[in-house]
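Appendix B. Chain record.
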Amino acid sequence: MSMRRKITVGAATACTLALLAGPAGAAAAPGAPGIGDPYYPNSGNGGYDALHYDIRLNYQPSNDNLSGTTTILAKATQDLSRFNLDFLLNVQSVRVNNKVASFTQQGGELVVDPKATLAKGSDLTVVVTYSDSPSTKSVDGYTAWKKTPTGALAIDEPDIAPWWYPSNNHPTDKATFDVSVAVPDGVEVISNGRLTGTTKQINGWTRWNWRSTKPQNTYSTFVSIGQFEIRQSTSPSGLPVVNAYAEGLGEFEGAAKASVERTPEILEFESGFFGPYPFEAQGGVVTGGIGFALENQTRPNYDTAFWRRGGNTYVVAHELAHQWFGDSVSVHGWKDIWLNEGFASYAEWLWSEHVGEGTAQENSDYVYSLYPADDPFWDVLPGDPGAANQFDGAVYDRGALTLHALRSAVGDEAFFTTLQTWVAQHQYSDASIDQFIALAEQVSGQQLDDLFTTWLFTKGKPAQAPGTFSVSADSASAKTAVAEPKSRQKIAETHELLAKSER
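Structure tokens predicted for this chain:
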């Protein structure tokens, strides 16, 4: 993230004019149409740093019409003649620094040509006005926007933003957000952060206003529109808690509430391992129609299927761990996804031990024994799984095994110091696997290349499960070789559904 600077009001006009004019003879160039991520070459854009999104929309559930404006505050990182935004909906107008700009749209890219060159370091105010039906838009045959009988769900990973607001759509460019959506009376709107209020409009609509004050990546920014029961409370730490439950949950309602209402308790537990909770609000949303859960910042979304066999706090522990690993510290590139999923999966093992349903060592031994040496599970490399396997079960389970191997090698003190230092050093930013390995070696004083190469980057089943009393590949080639922890059925079911977020 770039540093946010304040300029005194007296100097602002002259400074801005000088920046817009640019140095004499400077050659401006278009910003790159992609940020350079090898998994998703067209994701993100170059030439500017987004600082804040003000998303102000109207949504009509009956015809899936989404209309309004997104105002983007940004800073140019080069002399810009043109820049891109990632966006799929039909755009009506674009203004840059209050001047009408020309634009074109193709292949999910909104290409903006401002009236004048935008000098490096200058402040940008970009206003995009649009109207469309998001459910009619697709990329490679896939539509991330989910129309429901009472509204819509803008929830997905790695991409959701292009279906409802223009953005620099990559985790390396975080910003703060205001999300304001007006809907017909009787419909609710849930998003990230704090609910700053609702406003009754004269046309029989109500506007819902949400604010995220900490840097937030684009895919974890969400909106859930429909008919919800909203529960508001305050956590023991004094933060607002907003939980929302879709109407008509039926038999799932009790188990879902019994799990999600424990959010403050689970966050308190995880804070003991990962450090202070990094955001301004807490909560969760339970709905149908997504088929997975997602770690939306401050307020994960869960599909009802997680409670088909009763209460399930493991999925809650998983998504809440992402508040540190994925939301506060985001991936530098999508190949670093182990930093999200391996860590959140290991949090489930920690929670399992806490509630007396299986220690982390028992979970490690069981997962290791579950897959024979010739199982394709061992062919997926958590350290660089490829875009097609980004959410493969191995990223979750072998990812968690990697962390237990690290813990076994360096001891609890160094292991948990590494996790807390990682979060503190990269809070509200992004980081890579290489940086994590370097930190683990620094904290432990050990050379760990062999460990990480074996568990993250080498195909095949490692010779022995991690841990002092762990089993060998020869003695644990089948599921029956090691007793199944009581937590395992819930954890396995959780991971099966979480993997459905892959597209």
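Further analysis of this model is presented in Appendix C.
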